[in-house]
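SAMPLE LOG
Freezer: B-3
Tube label: C17
Construct: single chain, 113 aa
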Amino acid sequence: MFSEPAQQHNYEQGLFQRLQLGGQRVHMLNMQYRMHPHISIWPGKRFYDGDAPSVPIPALALALALALALTLALALALALTLALALALTLALTLTLILTLTLTSPSPPPPPSP
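STRUCTURE (predicted):
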């Protein structure tokens, strides 16, 4: 920690450590869902004494497939929303052009010879 004020507020410790030292109840994971089981080995040993088993790979694959499906559904909804906004903008623009064309005064007739 380089800053004295940061050191005075114990910012060299993580938020979890500060909350724990401040008397907050600690709820440790009994199952981790966010990492592939092979990647989670080190954090499980380091922070949970090896007691945070990973979700089995088929369940993890299902969760990832559901997350992907949700992401694709949201992307489709966003694309449809943008297409609708573009269509409405085009319709309003055409309406404005037609309104201005139909309500503008007609030009005077050319002078006769």
